[in-house]
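Work Package 3 (structural annotation) set out to generate three-dimensional models for the target panel prioritized at the project kickoff. During this period the team completed the workflow that converts sequence records into discrete structure tokens, so that structures can be stored uniformly alongside our sequence database. As a representative example, we reproduce one entry of 357 residues exactly as it appears in the project archive.
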Amino acid sequence: MSLRPPVLSEEPALRRFRRPTPHKKLLSCRNRHCPKCQSNARDRWLNARRSELLAAPYTHVVFTLPHELAPLALQNKEVMYGLLFRFSAETLIEIARDPKHLGAEIGFFSVLHTWNQKLQHHPHVHCVVAAGGLSPDHTQWVRPRCNNFFVPEAVLSEVFRGKFVEALKQTFAAGKLQFYGQLQALAQPKVFHSFLRQLFRHRWVVYCKPPFGGPDQVLRYLGAYTHRVAISDHRLVSLVDDQVTFRWRDSAHKNKKRLMKLSAEEFLRRFLLHMLPRGFVRIRHYGFLSSRRRQELVPLCKQLLAAVVPTTSTSTSTPADSTPMWICPLCGGPMIVIERLTAGQITLRSPPQAKTA
């Protein structure tokens, strides 16, 4: 069973390929929410990141919005997800710069996910951070003082909560939040500020995994997070009598795999909760990995880590030396794009209907 959103734009939606022995394969809608169209995009992204990885351990940090904010985030996706990106990044950068914790400039990237295993709305960002950073004067690589991450989770949680709630106050005052349905009462300033005070009653979830591996391990690890969609085809079990059955992992019981059955309507409703606003960037880079600074600072980081900076050669490389981005499903050989067709062109090129006598 395959769940694939329709093509909604005039961007290339279909490709034709050629092989020495021609095999034609019509591929995919390229919609970033489609569970079947992400593997090649993921491979291209990972290949582009390969040169930026450092010979240092990496750690995984997850910032999660509390469930009280999930309905507000659903009605204001672009604003709330943008705040989640911004202030999770500011929290990491600020705490890492503090000499009490690391005293260095770090580099990392963040990936937005909005779902849990049951396809319910659960906005959070995954941050993959190099375990260490550049000293303020950029003359040495600063390593963490302990084997675990450079700052306690409780400190990250408290700072993140304070920054995010203050940003919500300013966003509300600027009139950038919309309230519909059961949230209409929050449009009143007194009710909204009372709602914000409730957010301080408990600790926000910030989870840090211990450092893991080097560049090769990081690439394999990233593949599981960067281009994931709400549910992939391999988790779908059946569609019988308008009931969709899919697998989910129960983290509360040692990740035991279970089956969930939903009506087709409810399944589609949950899936569509995770459609991002058009043009919204869900993978972002910060610190010395930001687009404005990586070209200068990544080679410096490698030099300080006593790593050899790979040199690029334009004279000796050939197409056969590079890893192919498109693989023939019949013979396993590399495929070459020979033409790109838009949705409108596909309609125009459809075969003529047979005439009946």
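The first helix runs from residue 39 to 50.
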